[in-house]
Amino acid sequence: MLRGLTGAGLGKLESNEQFIELAAKYGFAAVDIDALALVESHSVDGARELLGKHGLVIGSIGLPVEWRGSEETFRAGLSKLTQAAAAAEALGCTSCCTYILPSTDLNAAHFMALATRRLRTCAQILGAYGIRLGLEFVGPHHLRTRWKHPFIWTLEETLDWIDAIGESNVGLLFDAYHWYTNGLTVADIEKLRPEQIVHVHINDAPDVPVEDVLDNGRVYPGEGVIDLAGFLQGLARIGYKGAVSQEILTATPPADSPESLVQRSKAGFDKVYAAAGL
Questions:
Q1: Across 116-188, where does the E strand assignment appear?
Q2: 0.90 cut: is pTM over it?
């Protein structure tokens, strides 16, 4: 499994170049980054050279389409999705991810019908470029009632929805935080097949009752109470070999420098990987 970073939790990064350089300096192998922006600023060859020079791959790109709002907004975003998919393919990235909020102000059944069709369309576009779409279930309890109607927040529900979308390139973005806030265990990971997981996020939770854990209250790996050693061991046992990318969401931006935060991240990865025997 590749150690990876997102920009979340790294403070005020000055540029993609700084992000890439720091990730490589502290031993990371993957970055979750906007492939299209990288290609637009460096060209395909320049972006490949930048990543290759630092021994990095792109773990995943984000889905650049707003599929939760109006039909007009969704349709308007599809051209950018095509461009993003082409850029990702050119840079060797095979994953694109989005999250599912666990409640909605829309009628849940109608929203499910719309979202299923829209995500199927996104998956079909991505599939033409050899890219998989990862769906992230979101577990924190406070978001389950944040909007009027409950939607999806469990692993089982998400797997059922993936089946309903019906495209072979759709799977899970599997996040340690949401695994924890759903009360899942290592045994739940071991029931999965590696091909069901598109991408993985890792982070940790503070020592508060799980019902009080906030989505933007995350801490760095190894600094909280999640059994990240078990999480990683479960992924290793089923044969997952992709990126495991740190994603730290906080209520206020970190005040420390990006370099000190990447160094802190490395220490966290070293701790939890060692505990997992990896």
A1: 132-137, 149-150, 170-175
A2: yes
